[in-house]
Design goal:
It is built from 30 helices and 24 strands. With 833 residues, it is α/β, with parallel strands linked by helices. Strand 23 and strand 24 form a beta hairpin. The two termini are 51 Å apart. Keywords: ATP-binding, Cell membrane, Membrane, Nucleotide-binding, Repeat, Transmembrane, Transmembrane helix, Transport.
Length: 833
């Protein structure tokens, strides 16, 4: 037996409490060097929470963690990694905005991390050495799930870990890759590494593990050597409970007509689904989470693109989307009630009759309250929904009553097929019995019901048949004598199917350019700027005069700095609506120092930059500590900051002296020095975002904050830094604006907020965070300012100037939507090719 003294990893008395759930209840685990220790249990047993505690991504409420004999009250992912513990998550903890090589830089501890300049070559060599054909310069977002798993495994292997934790590592892997992984595990174990292997699959345990621990409901319920346990004993430990819930009686379905039928249905994550569901029958979908059953259910509802044949009552269903499925009488009840099913702020009445509005309206246009109540009240009463009235908002109800509202909606819709996902998730025992009763009653009215559940007890008691999925295919069909909780769980954990192969995604993108990281958007914007300038100069030669070009570049400098500040914030998934107000405050602050010598102006510039940094820091605190939405937080500070600027300068004033104006207007080869400085700031920003650790942290945080945190990125300080830099750069934009106007005016700069967002999005940054280019933002700011200047030289009316500039704002809003649609189509094609 492993003792604490000789264990490579020890978890002692670990307790983790979430609201309403005790996820871990005094768990002990000790793993010896040179040993594979399997941890098993049903979904929700606490396995992933436990490994999160070991890896530092979950902070325990009580307990002690020891790695290599050294105790830690709590860990961070970075600290765990630095002390020899590597973790491969069930869902890869990789940020989509980073390349494979950049991910390695974040994941690897300091002692084995390659130099930034050599990261790509080092990663490519490491992957080749492991026999993996993955481009080191590809974005993580372009990888398949299988490739992402392999990259994370490769990063863990590169650390030569003292302890390696693998959470469901083979779920996305094929047989060859699983064999490859097991060979690597054996090599590590032979070298003395301790391996913790989380899985549901008993055959894998037989092949790779020496000892095991079984968890149930947050507690350890058994363990020992693998050889000392039969498969049946392991299943018994995993299940450990009897069918003690009262379920409705199951009818005799002999001779009932088939309502739902599929032939060879396939889609993302599942294949070869052939199904028959009769009128009055309840069929369950079971299996370890992530084995294709959820995608298959949603494909039946038209929510997941699929191929094959589906019929309802003998009539084919076009596999084009949810509307086609609903048109054939298919109703889907999502397990994500608040996100996908109910209208939280609307009443019970409005939620229940949402799909039956023609029946409760006059001439299909005007709702008739009496008709609504007559239709809704009986359905709600039959389900015993606990609420003060039909006008009670659904988001004030308990989870069980919300589910009853959804079932009431389904019942009045008279569905031919009812698809129910996790029907009793978050529901108390009493409400469960009501839900079971209603599902059976709906089936009794001739509806074909398909239920997906992770609760084997529920499936045994409720369903007439259960299909157990494994790696995208139906592994077993259980009915009558074989339909038991033990058989359902045993079929899932004893499955040995190969994973559904991911179809080819077409030609892979080639290697990315090393120097500028593929700055095609920057080149495009510069080209458009040159073309626009040439066209304007052909009509108005004065456009290229030194005075005109100087003013254009000064104005572009201000917009560029503000846009760069906005970019840093947007890359973390936020937005800063206060940048225009910060510009105004900066212009006003520096104007009090403008009448003196340039040295005094330098002091004023520092004051203005400090003020901008303070506003940015305040924004960051409101977003990260107070948890205000970025739009709300920065709008609040915007109002306050512009108010402060107006108090300081109720009227324009603080004219810059002649000496200062001459200094600010200094040019190099006809280019204002201010613009040169801004270009240097943009280049520095490019290097920061692409080469520096802080830049990788910004992109990782915006791509996926949870994955970034698991990778070891300090996401909260990173977001604080982003807002601080955003405020500072906006203040710099104010200084550039003062260099252009030479006067303090609190009403200036407000238009730069919208212009900066437009510049950032047109430059190719995602409004959802994770990517962006400083060079492209710089070039886009110059392009937008060129548009403004050229329109005035071309004598375009002010109205048309607004129309043209507005069209670019609309384009900026549409760009991310079109990109998202194209990406979704690509993923669908990948899953159904």
């Amino acid at each position: 037996m492993t003792t604490v003294r000789d264990a490579a990893l020890t978890l002692t008395g670990i307790v983790k409490q979430y609201p309403g759930v005790r996820a871990l209840d005094g768990v002990d685990l000790a793993v010896s060097p040179g040993q594979v220790h399997a941890v098993l249990g049903e979904n929700g047993a606490g396995k992933s929470t436990l490994v999160g505690v070991a890896a530092g991504s979950v902070t325990p409420d009580e307990g002690r963690i020891s790695i290599g004999g050294r105790d830690y009250p709590a860990l961070t992912p970075a600290l765990a990694r630095e002390n020899g513990l590597a973790l491969v998550y069930q869902t890869p903890a990789l940020a989509g905005g980073l390349t494979v090589a950049e991910s390695m830089l974040v994941l690897l501890p300091e002692q084995v991390r390659p130099r930034v300049g050599a990261a790509s070559a080092w990663t490519a060599a490491h992957l080749r050495g492991l026999g993996l054909d993955i481009d080191a310069d590809r974005l993580v977002s372009e990888l398949t799930m299988r490739e992402a798993h392999l990259v994370e495994i490769a990063a863990a292997l590169a650390t030569d870990p003292r302890v390696l934790v693998l959470d469901e590592p083979t779920e996305a892997l094929g047989p060859d890759e699983t064999a490859w992984l097991f060979d690597r595990i054996r090599q590590l174990v032979a070298a003395g590494t301790a391996v913790v292997y989380i899985t549901h699959r008993i055959p894998e345990i037989r092949e790779i593990a020496q000892t095991l621990t079984v968890m149930r409901d947050g507690r350890v319920v058994g363990g020992g050597t693998v050889a000392a346990h039969t498969d049946e004993q392991i299943v018994e430990l995993i299940v450990g409970r009897s069918l003690d819930t009262t379920f409705p009686a199951k009818p005799d379905l002999g001779g009932a007509p088939v309502v739902l039928a599929t032939e060879g249905l396939r889609g993302t994550g599942f294949a070869d689904l052939t199904l028959r569901v009769s009128a009055g029958e309840i069929v369950g979908f079971a299996g370890v989470e992530g084995n294709g059953q959820r995608q298959a259910l949603r494909a039946l509802a038209g929510l997941v693109r699929s191929h094959g044949r589906v019929t309802v009552a003998g009539r084919p269903v076009a596999l084009t989307g949810p509307a086609a499925a609903a048109g054939r009488g298919v109703t889907f009840l999502s397990g994500e009630r608040l996100r996908e099913a109910v209208f939280g702020d609307l009443s019970i009445r409005e939620n229940v009759d949402a799909l039956a509005l023609p029946r409760v309206s006059l001439l299909r246009t005007l709702l008739v309250p009496a008709r609504e109540r007559a239709l809704v009240a009986p359905a709600v009463g039959a389900l015993r929904v606990k609420a003060a009235s039909l006008e009670t908002p659904v988001n004030t109800l308990s989870g069980g009553n919300q589910q009853k509202v959804l079932l009431a909606r389904a019942s009045i819709g008279r569905p031919a097929v009812l698809l129910v996902e996790d029907p009793t998730q978050g529901v108390d025992a009493g409400a469960r019995l009501e839900i079971y009763r209603v599902l059976r009653e709906l089936a009794g009215q001739g509806t074909a019901v398909v239920v997906l559940s992770t609760d084997a007890v529920e499936l045994e008691g409720l369903c007439d048949r259960v299909l157990v999925f494994s790696r995208g295919r139906v592994h077993a069909e259980l009915s009558a004598a074989t339909l038991s909780e033990r058989d359902i769980t045993g079929a899932a954990v004893l499955a040995t199917e190969q994973a559904v192969a991911a179809p080819a995604a077409g030609p892979r993108p080639g290697p990315r350019r090393r120097l500028l990281g593929g700055e095609s958007q920057a080149a495009l914007m510069l080209l458009l700027t040159v073309v626009l300038g040439a066209v304007t100069a052909a009509r108005a030669p004065a456009f290229l005069s030194s005075l005109s070009v100087g003013q254009l570049l000064l104005a572009a400098a201000s917009l560029a700095l503000v846009s760069l500040g906005q970019l840093v914030v947007v890359m973390t998934g936020g937005i800063d609506l206060s940048v225009g107000s910060v510009v105004a405050l900066s212009v006003v602050a520096v104007s009090f120092f403008g009448a003196g010598p340039p040295a005094l102006f330098a002091v004023g510039a520092l004051v203005a930059l400090a003020a901008g940094a303070a506003v940015g820091l305040l924004n960051g605190v409101l977003v990260t500590r107070v948890n205000l939405p970025p739009v709300v937080a920065t709008l609040i500070t915007s109002i306050g900051v512009v108010g402060l600027a107006q108090l300081l300068r109720p009227l324009p004033g603080g004219q810059a002296g002649d000496t200062l104006l001459a200094a600010l207007g200094t040019t190099v080869a006809g280019v204002p020095v201010v613009f040169v400085v801004v270009v240097l700031v943009g280049v520095a920003g490019h290097l920061l975002l692409r080469r520096a650790r802080a830049g990788r942290a910004l992109r990782a945080t915006g791509s996926d904050a949870l994955s970034a945190s698991r990778m070891g990125v300090a996401t909260v300080p990173t977001r604080l830094l982003a807002y601080l830099l955003g405020g500072t750069l906006a203040a710099g934009g104010g200084l550039a604006l003062y260099a252009q106007t030479g006067i303090g005016d609190a009403s200036t700069g407000q238009a730069l907020t919208l212009a900066s967002v437009t510049a950032v999005v047109l430059a190719g940054a995602s409004v959802f965070g994770g990517n962006g280019s400083a060079l492209a933002t710089l070039a886009t700011a110059l392009f937008l300012q060129t548009i403004t200047s050229s329109l005035s030289f071309l004598s375009v009316s002010l109205a048309w100037q607004y129309w043209i500039q507005g069209s670019f704002v609309v384009a900026a809003a549409l760009v991310p939507l079109l990109r998202g649609r194209r990406r979704r189509r690509g993923l669908l094609a990948l899953g159904t090719a």
